[in-house]
Amino acid sequence: MTRNFRDRAYIHYMNRRQFTFSLGALTAAPLIPTLASAGAPTAALSSTAARIYPWAAQFTRVNGQASAAKLVQVFRISPQAAAEISAELVSKGVVTPAAGGALQAVKPVNWKALYAGHTSAPVQAVGKLKGKMRDALENSLKEATVSESEPTPEDQSTDSAECPRA
Question: Where are the domains of the chain?
Fold first, then answer.
């Protein structure tokens, strides 16, 4: 059974780069204080802009920069709502205006620090685990070779009734 996705506008094809970006954002989201640091939007915002404002603040911090056009593209909102959100981001101090209408995040996410913190701890833990396993294997091999090299009293018996030869 084949499915026709053309009539379903909400289903989009996703390439590997978009999937990796989404997965990274999903992984880093709990590490970033979202709504508490963004603050509550003021009453001057429209309902759409008030609903999108926390997400736009998070998007700007994660990407380091944004613009009204980018907010329109990403959140699929009207240009007026994007302009309201941009003005609110500037007034709250989340972003600073830059050349060409771009908005630079004041406190962008430091991705290098996040990745460095996550990769070093598991690597060290794996190294310790490898060392423990190597030591346990060496100890078991030593015990096995020592027990095989020493003759036991049963091996030293020469009674032919106990050891029949064929």
Answer: 16-109, 112-148
Q: Are 122 and 85 contacting, i.e. CB atoms less than 8 angstroms apart?
A: no
Query: Which of the two residues, 158 and 133, has the higher pLDDT score?
Result: 133
CB under 8 Å to 71, separation ≥6 — which residues?
52, 56, 59, 77, 82, 85, 86
CATH match for 16-109 among 3.30.565.10, 1.10.287.40, 1.25.40.340, 1.10.10.10: 1.10.10.10
Sheet holding 102-105, edge to edge: 65-67, 102-105, 95-97
> 119 pLDDT exceeds 80?
no
Q: What is the mean pLDDT of residues 21-50?
A: 66
